[in-house]
Amino acid sequence: MDEFAYPLPVTVICAVLGVPRQDEPRFHGWIQAFMNGLDLGPEAATEEQQRLREAGIRGRQDLSDYMRGLLEKYAEQPGPGMLSAMVNDKSEEHLSHDELLSNAMLLLFAGHETTVNLIAHSVLTLLRHDDALEKLRRRPELIVPGVEEFLRFESSVQFWPTRTALEDIEIAGTTIPKGAAVIPVYGSGNRDPSRFTNPDQVDLEREDNEHLGYSGGIHLCFGGPLARLEAQIAVGEFVRRVKNPRLVVDPPPYRHNQIFRGPRHVLVDIDGVSD
């Protein structure tokens, strides 16, 4: 996680947005505090989780203050990256200050957190399925559909709790009333046997693999193409260059978070790394 899955996505998103890479230790700590405090389970009422929740609120505020300062800096002195372009947009469709701030925070957070988990889960899945690993070694072009299968098989986002029905919706004979909360469970949908043949098997050549790894419709993650490319490069190079990788601990320890699913560590023994 720390030595392989994390560095690439955070370096890329910093370059894309124009966030100074040297500030990574600061905002990484704030994001982790926020993640640790995000608990929707029965443990949320415990004293320890309440302490983590308060720390998470402070982390989110610190991140907000940091991003606000960065946007103000780019407003005065434009620089490279997406944030500067957004804050200096003079078109009629430009974002408001609050919209700029919320989008900047979202892009930094989502631009590396879920991709880190995707890379880790991809390696973890391959090391658990020797046949898939060997197949990808023989046919490296399968990394493109392979990443789609990893997205389906191990969803980095398990569900999303912030949707609301805008009108009455009937599904399978049940009416979801207007204004009711709607919680899509991606992890379940991606293993739905009525949608996917043999959903609990890893198939690098799965056809019609329209998974929910990046949601769908108007909610489709517009950062998905970048995350896919990062995972294709990282996992492809891992398969090509790492000699005889094998898991040390399986299952690895997972972070306590119901929404964002990812391991804390994935310990791997190797015999070396080729050029």
Spatial strand sequence of the major β-sheet: 1-4
**Low-confidence regions:** none
Radius of gyration: 20 Å
The overall pLDDT, averaged over residues, is 93
Structural class by secondary-structure content: mainly alpha
**How many β-strands, per DSSP?**
8
Order of helices and strands: HHHHHHHHEEEEHHEEEE
Q: Helical percent range? A: 40-55%
Largest sheet: 2 strands, antiparallel
Number of helices: 10
Strand content bin? 5-15%
Looking at the structure, what is the overall shape?
Answer: globular
Q: What features would you describe in this structure?
A:
There is one protein chain. The chain is mainly α. The protein is built from 10 helices and 8 strands. The strands form 4 sheets. It has a two-stranded antiparallel sheet with strand order 1-4. β2 (169-171) and β3 form a beta hairpin. The chain is globular and about 55 Å long. It starts with 6 loop residues before the first helix and ends with a strand. The mean pLDDT is 93.
Describe the structure concisely for a colleague.
The chain is mostly helical and 275 residues long.
